[in-house]
Predict the 3D structure of the following.
Amino acid sequence: MADIHDAIRRLDVAHQRLQLTQEVVEEQGAILKAIYDTVPSGVVILDPDGQVTSFNRGAEEITGYRFEEVLGQDYFSAFRMEGEDEARIREGISRREPIVNLDVKIVDRESRHRMIRINMAPLVEKTGRFEGSIQTFTDVTEEKRIEEIVRTNHDRMVSILSSLIELRDPHMKGHCERVALYSDRIARRLGWTDSRRLAELRYASILHDIGMIALPDQIWSKKDGLTWYEVEHIRKHPVESERIVSVIEGFENVRAMIRHHHEFYNGKGYPDELAGDKIPEGARIIGVAEAYDAMSRARANRPPLSRGVVLKELRENRGKQFDPAAIDALLKLIESKDPVFQ
């Protein structure tokens, strides 16, 4: 009889524990649902076939679609995209691969264009079975609009400043644009892909010599050798260039590339005698691009150097004046018959 009572007591305790566990689970579930419904980001859950199974309030507000409208529908019913954007998302879903900070353009329910930033991850059980995908996204339309305004203003300012240097010396015409083009090619060869970083490199390439406008007229027009004083005056132009562009907001990285584009890889350059990796990579790239253009074009005191002489100078100064990686990238571009360098 005692055994029966003891068994009943244990069952009662187990039942109480089960009830408590269920209450905790329900409470946690309610908390998670509240978070899910109140986060400003959109959250979408897809089944293995790419059909919508969950769509939070944030997703409704951004896309304009109600959950009831997209439940069971193909993902792209709510996220209307075109071209590469749709292909990239489809590939991520089909291959069960994560997607990180991908900016894509969508058309919402009211046919308005929006830019959203997507993060997506596959849902996989412990057994390894694929259960679908979960995606979070934020509306970056306004952020992109402001970025475009800033970029346009930067472009205008850079264009105005770069034209000043060409007005001072006809031999400089096209120099800054060519250096920007060469720098972009070298950077991409070195694996640069970030659009912001490449844009900063372009701005720095175009404005690297803007400080030269402060040089006295007699230096510009001089066709014979320069005096020590005149050489020292010219060596100040990276610092002067940095000072001029310091008025442009958001150009901190650009300023560093401009200031250090005449540093030597072996530490014997100017203005700060930096060496190796202490020199910003963008500045090392610009240094190589500028030297290539300067040697390949006529200057006030000499004709352009032959291709053979230019290549010889680049190779001999690899690891001395020039970053070895940047020189190797340039030489490979030349050897590959890249039309930019022909």
Notes: Residues 129 and 311 are 58 Å apart (CA to CA).
